[in-house]
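Hi everyone, sorry if this is the wrong subforum. Our group has a chain we'd like a structural model of before ordering constructs, and none of us has done structure prediction before. Sequence below.
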Amino acid sequence: MTTKYYVALDLGTNSVIQLTALATEHGAFETVDEQLRIPRLGEGLAENGGLKPEAMDRTLDAVAEVLVNVEETTEHGCAVAAATSAVREADNRHAFLERFSERFHSSPYIISGQEEARTTFLGVASDQGEDTEILNIDIGGGSTEYGIGKRGFCRGADSLPLGCVKLTERFGLEGECSDGQIQRAYEYAREEISRVGEDMSEKRIQQPPEVLASGGTATTYAAYKTGVAPYEHKTIHGVKGERGELAEIVDTLCRMDTYTRTCETGISVERAPVLPAGLIILMAVLDQIGSKNFSVTARGLRFGLIVRMHAGELTPTWTW
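Answer:
Right subforum, don't worry. Here is the predicted structure as tokens:
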């Protein structure tokens, strides 16, 4: 029997992530390989309204790099590529899609915000207990997605137009910043993510659910807390966090310039400018729902794409 590999490419505002997995019994998946690049496709998008040519170049080069790795490690399979908020919001998204198609002979899905949120939830919840009520918070560069439900069943999901890149650029958080900047950023984030608390009330969720934080902000927080560098999936998956600790880390990082942040274990050059903003968003969400604790998950949109592709919900971008 020929082994079939499933591959997902998450083309985000800040990063490109590739996951290669094998399907196992009972709908589970075994991770074969993961690759991360941070080309910052959405650099300057909030200010300019469009994708910069150099950011497109970096992203297409990153996709080419991870696809070479897929070709070297798999023999037979299918892949899906999905573009998120940067592409769906950009005035010149068609230019990016044309360049992508010319180079790779296919086009990525541009998934809506709600579809991204639901798909991310399905991926995050795929290794959780069947009866666990989950709130997934996925903080991206250009948007924050949330999903509520249980494994295999998403009760509600949405995408909010706030991400760590946008918040960083709006309040100048990429380097040393003042208490006033931090407070203004927090107040803005709290207002922008108020929908999370409203949705939980509408669904009559009385007790705070298990909060699972996914995305680069969450995994970088876990790497920083545990002193893991480079990123190790098994080490950071399941790391516990607490709201007060987030505030202390934000205060510490905002006293540093960008370079000094990169000297901290677990914080990459690409992640250093936007990490405080991402943690501020996570703080705001926890406060909004009245929860003090959360867990980090290394799963996310790429896992959900594979779940849906395996179930026949998504047509592959490529097959081989």
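For your construct planning: The chain has 14 helices and twelve strands. The mean pLDDT is 92.
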